[in-house]
Each structure stands twice: as C-alpha cells, then as structure tokens.
C-alpha cells in the first residue's frame, strides 16, 4: 500500500507540490486528475523516484522510500509508465520489452505469454521498430514493458493522451482486468473525466500543486466540483 503524506516537491526555487497526501491500495485504481501544469507528473515522478520530496513521506509497504532511486523502487515493485511513453524508437518491440529484464532476476527474464493475451497487437509486431508503431501501440508497449516487472504498483501518466478512441477503450479494459486481479495498486493520471470516472475507485484532484478534492469513483462521475475543476 502507498501512503503519501504532506509532500512538497520543488524544481530548484520553484515549488510545484504543496502538502500533497494520497493513498493507493492493491486491487484499486486511484485517479489523479487536474488540468495542465497542476503537478500531476511531478507527483508521479516523486512516486517513481525521478524526483525527491523536499518535505513529507512517501511510504510503500510500510517503508519510507523518499530518496530511493527509481531502480531501487522498481525492484520493490513500483513500475512507472511516463507521459509520452518513452519507448526506444530504434529498438524492435521485442527488444523494447527486453529492456525490462535488467531489473529482474535471471530466472524471470522471459516475456510472459500473458503479455500478448493482454496486448495481442504486440505479438504481431514483435520484429517492428518501436518508432514505426502508432501512438496507441507505443502506449500499449510501454504498459506491457512495465508489466514485465510484475509490479505491485503500476503508475500510468496520461495513457490516453493523443490516442484514438478504440485504443483508449482497449487500454481501459486492460486497466480494469489488472485491477480486478487484485495483485497491484494502479495510479492513473488523467485529464479525461469520463475515462477516469469509469475506472476510478478513488480519486484526487490537484489544482496549482495542492489537493483540492478527494472521493470515491462513484462520486467522481457526478461531481460538479470535478467538472468545474477540470473545466468540462
Ligand atoms: N523540469 C522542470 N523544471 C521547472 N519547473 C517544472 C519542471 N517540470 C515541471 N515544472 C513546473 O511544475 C509545475 C507542475 O508541472 P507538471 O508537469 O507536474 O504538471 P502536470 O499536471 O503533469 O501537467 P500536464 O498535464 O501538462 O502534464 C508546472 O508549473 C511546471 O511548469
């Protein structure tokens, strides 16, 4: 279980997060919502270890992990799919998947066929270069690579950004399936209220670096405050 407590994060002298708290539980989707530039990605980087919190605690499975490097957090089951996907365009799909192996013990360094059950398109495109895939396929590849780490927490930063509706639906189905298995916590950053409301068990909304609303997924769909804060 993730417990973020009263976290501040700054870029040099410029503070991006103020006193942010949130939880994420195994078997649940926790959505982080907010408009452009409110601090969603900054918060995800603080969870993944790409940024450190200047104040507050980030507890994972009862241990404060603030200050630990991304690689160490990956070994503790935290997988991060950054916004913009970050796949290697010159490597094939297969090679991209294999880049996850460096964080795995030798015995686990194989591509679980289950990955292709979740993302059949990747099996068809194994020998294609990452850069030749569509945006939606690249997003699926990035999620598949994260899943090879057998995460206990999967952090997805705006997986629907710039992606066609049919692939958004596919990604939504995979998120639901992963949640229902009850083996990982999913933290989902979103700007689209509809997509988030369908998937969220819990949500937080950020505004100018602060948490300004929290609640359950059911509340999100009908929340006037959420509509207002997301300017819908
Ligand atoms: N590397 C950086 N250096 C300095 N300031 C930054 C840096 N990255 C982000 N910021 C600032 O921190 C604030 C939060 O940005 P962040 O990217 O976390 O927002 P976001 O909610 O993820 O936005 P988006 O939806 O556009 O990705 C913004 O004011 C942004 O300008």
From TrEMBL:
Gene3D superfamilies: P-loop containing nucleotide triphosphate hydrolases (3.40.50.300). SUPFAM superfamilies: P-loop containing nucleoside triphosphate hydrolases. It comes from the Bacteria. InterPro entries: AAA+_ATPase, ABC_transporter-like_ATP-bd, ABC_transptr_urea_ATP-bd_UrtE, BCAA_Transport_ATP-bd_LivF, P-loop_NTPase. CDD domains: ABC_TM1139_LivF_branched. SMART domains: AAA (SM00382). Residues 2-232 form the ABC transporter domain. It holds the Pfam family ABC_tran. Belongs to the ABC transporter superfamily. Keywords: Amino-acid transport, ATP-binding, Nucleotide-binding, Transport. GO terms for biological process: L-amino acid transport. One of its GO terms (molecular function) is ATP hydrolysis activity. This is ABC-type branched-chain amino acid transport system, ATPase component.
């Amino acid at each position: 279980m993730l417990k973020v407590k009263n976290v501040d994060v700054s870029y040099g002298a410029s503070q991006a997060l103020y006193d942010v708290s949130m939880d994420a539980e195994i078997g649940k989707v926790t959505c982080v919502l907010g408009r452009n530039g409110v601090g969603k990605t900054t918060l995800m980087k603080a969870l993944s270890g790409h940024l450190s919190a200047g104040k507050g605690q980030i507890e994972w499975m009862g241990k404060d992990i603030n200050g630990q490097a991304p690689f160490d957090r990956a070994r503790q089951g935290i997988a991060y799919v950054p916004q913009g996907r970050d796949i290697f365009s010159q490597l094939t799909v297969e090679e991209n998947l294999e880049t996850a192996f460096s964080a795995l013990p030798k015995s686990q360094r194989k591509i679980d066929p289950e990955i292709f059950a979740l993302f059949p398109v990747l099996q068809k495109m194994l020998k294609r270069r990452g850069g030749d895939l569509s945006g939606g396929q690249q997003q699926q590849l990035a999620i598949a690579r994260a899943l090879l780490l057998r995460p206990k927490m999967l952090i997805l930063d705006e997986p629907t950004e710039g992606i066609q509706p049919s692939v958004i639906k596919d990604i939504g189905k995979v998120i639901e399936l992963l949640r229902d298995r009850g083996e990982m916590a999913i933290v989902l950053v979103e700007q689209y209220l509809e997509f988030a409301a369908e998937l969220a068990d819990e949500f937080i909304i950020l505004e100018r670096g602060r948490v300004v609303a929290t609640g359950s997924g059911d509340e999100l769909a009908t929340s006037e405050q959420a509509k207002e804060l997301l300017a819908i």
